Amino acid sequence: MIGIFDSGVGGMTVARAIEHICPDYPLIYFGDIARTPYGSKSRETIIEYSRRNTDLLINHGATVIVIACNSAASTATDALRNQYPLPVIDVITPATVKAASVTRGNRVGIIGTRATVRSGVYEDRIQAINPDCRVISRACPLLVPLVEENWLNRRETKMILRRYLHPLRLQQIDTLVLGCTHYPLLSKLIQPRIGKRVQLIDSSIEVAMHLKKFIDNNADIKDKLQQHPAASRFLVSDSTGPVRQLADRIFGRTIHLEKVDA
Amino acid sequence: MIGIFDSGVGGMTVARAIEHICPDYPLIYFGDIARTPYGSKSRETIIEYSRRNTDLLINHGATVIVIACNSAASTATDALRNQYPLPVIDVITPATVKAASVTRGNRVGIIGTRATVRSGVYEDRIQAINPDCRVISRACPLLVPLVEENWLNRRETKMILRRYLHPLRLQQIDTLVLGCTHYPLLSKLIQPRIGKRVQLIDSSIEVAMHLKKFIDNNADIKDKLQQHPAASRFLVSDSTGPVRQLADRIFGRTIHLEKVDA
Question: Which has the closest alpha carbon to B258: B229, B243, B238?
Fold first, then answer.
């Protein structure tokens, strides 16, 4: 199965994109709702939780791991790759490859949680591919709670977005990476406020397309994924009404969340 | 020592009030930053974490426990009282006693996290004291992240407060309980938006005054607290820059946070 973990329910935007783009393989998702959000936690804590999540997914049959949480991907990817003998795909790299290739003016903006921005990982990776590219990052800690409140059409949300995006507009970015899994739900509000000519990069779609290519190019992984056909499962370490509503909203259908001890 | 725990750093408003009102006894504080916030978690998870926090405080010398977290107090107080042979004081009861006694028109408003409001505990306790009192509750999940962003003077914060308080104004409450430890930092913004004539009840001050009375009336507790003079300590399960800044902001001085495994 394709194992996917996130600190919460936001990573379901990644699961949904993978379901659309790789429909032939079952998913096993784990959302660490009991410990969400990772974005405000320290490096050591994020690595420790990412290891536990990977163990859990492997115990449930995962043969490839997708880190859907930007905070975990920016902090724990190397630690997981060093420890586990299976492919670990992170939600960040495909978006940085895309951003580095599509920017026309070499000015890329990044928005994400504090932990993601603090790590500097987007900047480093984009500049590793395109050293001429200027990367401007902005932490936006209020966007996740606004999405979780479902305040998508509220004036306050629009004002907060305008305030967060303003410095990126001043820097005249031409490409903006949505560096947090909750943000695709805000993309319709972000586009007019950052400007029509700025290309938005949705990391959930980029990682799903990367995963598809990776599976198509690796026959042994493809075989393993096809060996045990099973239904997709969605595990969570905690479950509340707003979490279930957000999951249903992301998928556009009722999602059965299974609570597990983790 | 007086043991105090919270899901994060907000409970330090309680620690600070206790330091002011009970200056003769050392405090041992634990903020469960690694698992914050509790407000969005399920009942079982909150009880489990509250037990772990109580064990930790007892191991560090606590002889009385103050649950400074509203979500934990509303959910786990009975479980802790049934399990532990030491006094457990919750942040909710003193505020409800005060609200029930000061309301002139028997119309009390409560603001808090989703978990606190969902529990109905404020309503139940106020009506147990004063059955004629009408209690109107409102969950305000965005206020904690706004305080943690330090957006105390921003227009967006004022608009969001106005939106949250509007239904309470319409109900013509005369008393408003700040049912979350972060909210005392917003009281100067809340007062003009709810109306000058509405009395705000700060649960951190009420619980500190209750604790003082409790110690003064219980000689054995007082003896135990005075037996081992020690300096106050502030433990956290995780530590980041914004957390340290918020701790310093609450106390108005530099607070040394000790990270512990928990």
Answer: B238
- Sheet with B64-67: strands ordered across: B88-90, B64-67, B2-6, B27-31, B233-236, B257-259
- Residue B189's domain is classified under what CATH number? 3.40.50.1860
Among chain A residues, CA nearest to B33: A41
Centre a 10 Å sphere on the Cβ of residue A135 and count the other Cβ atoms it contains. 25
Domain holding B147, by residue range, is 93-203
Nearest-by-CA chain B residue for A162: B156
ipTM of the complex: 0.75
pTM for this prediction: 0.82
- CA B189, B14, A35, A249 torsion: positive or negative? negative
Integer Cα distance of A92 and A125 in angstroms: 9
B152 at the A interface (CB within 8 A)? no
**pLDDT 10s digits, A23-34:** 999 999 999 998
Would an 8 Å CB–CB cutoff place B159 in contact with chain A?
yes
Annotated catalytic residue A180: yes
- Whether A86 and A212 share a structural domain: yes
Last residue of a domain, one of A163, A178, A203: A203
Same domain, A199 and A221: no
The strand pairing partners of B235, in sequence order, are B30, B258
- For chain B, the residue count is 262
